[in-house]
Amino acid sequence: MSTVPVTPIPARRDTACPFAPPPAYTEAAGTGPVSRAELPDGSPCWLVTGYQEVRTVLSDRRFSADVRRPAFPFLVEGRRELIAANPSFLRLDDPEHARLRRMVTGEFLVKRVEAMRPGIQRIVDEALDRMTAGGGPADLVADFALPVPSLVICLLLGVPYEDREAFQANSRLLLATEAAGEDFARAQKEMLDYLAGLAERKRSEPGEDILSRLAARDDLTVREIAATGVLLLVAGHETTANMIALSTALLLRHPEQAARLADPAAVPGAVEELLRLLTIVHTGVPRLAVEDVELGGALIRAGDGVMAMLSTANRDDRLFGTEGHPGADEVDLARDARRHVAFGFGVHQCLGQPLARAELQIALATLFRRLPGLRLAVAREALEFRADALIYGLRALPVAW
């Protein structure tokens, strides 16, 4: 065992630097790319913070994503049985993972997403029309950042948008690290039952949507469809919504950077830099070693839990602190950040990343073009960040223009 202090997971953020990873993670990274850590239930695990080492953990088959393995590391106590009983393909290994993922991969291909851009633009414009109709101020989270990806994923999946209050509330509970066990169990059951019911209806009344296409297959059970639906619905709106709000809050602190969004050619690269710097999957990605692995100067034994920290990997100066740009802890929308791991890496990397990129590019560019006077309507110190969730974000973002 190392004499380096054991890092608690999850660690507390520094409220003075709300866009940076928790200091405990960056301090651990300073001692080496792999160090010892402790999960909330007291069990030990390895904290992997270096860029190359994180990519190895996420792509090497000696590290398992299967939550049904008895020693698999969990960030929240009391959820092992509930999650293991209804795993999405994100929490399985091949060949099960590949079989289920393959059935929806085509829905998120770049070519298909590019064809959706006019529709996404229309949704963004209409959301801004509604937000600005009253003259302001407004909550950018509730009035723009959340409705845009929610409506997009509802249309794709075939989920009625009028049901958004229920699934958004349950999504927050599923992602909350401090939600009571019974609240998590209820939210999980309601989401699974809701998607299973939709799938059943679509078998007799199909539409032009993902759930209908899944329901038409005879090689999927309703529960498998429901688990996939929950993953796509939750990830499809929570992640992008938080990225829109966080990106806006950061850019309001750096108007000289926000000005780059006026150049359409600069927008894709700007979004990659925001994804890199903000890395909203801020608690890390869990894996279980199934063989002994030497990594970053440490010997990880079979049966050891591992947490791959995307946030510190994305701030590795060896990769992103390039000449002519500020250090990796600073925002620079001109930086080439395309090698970031904000969407993960390897076979489990985010399936919906083409859609997320398109939504972010359109939403942020349109927001700052249409509202050049956008500003915070409260003091910076009054902003509340969602540090108690698996996906980092803002509870609200009051703005005026």
What labels describe this entry?
single chain; 11 strands; globular; 401 residues; 16 helices; 3-stranded antiparallel sheet; alpha+beta; Cytochrome p450; 6-stranded mixed sheet
Nearest-integer average pLDDT: 93
> Multimeric state of these chains?
single chain
Question: Could you say what the CATH topology is called?
Answer: Cytochrome p450
Biggest beta sheet attributes: 6 strands, mixed
Shape: globular
Which residues sit in consecutive blocks of at least 5 with pLDDT less than 50?
Answer: none
Domain count, please report it.
1
- Share in β-strands: 5-15%
Radius of gyration: 21 Å
Count every helix, treating DSSP H or I runs of 4 or more residues as helices: 16
Summarize the amount of helix as a percent range. Answer: 40-55%
What sequence of helices (H) and strands (E) makes up the elements? EHEEHEHHHEHHHHHHHHEEEEHHHEE
The CATH architecture category equals Orthogonal Bundle
What is the SS-derived class? alpha+beta
Measured distance between first and last alpha carbons: 55 Å
Strand line-up of the largest beta sheet: 1-2-3-9-6-4
CATH domain class: Mainly Alpha
CATH superfamily: Cytochrome P450
- The count of β-strands is 11
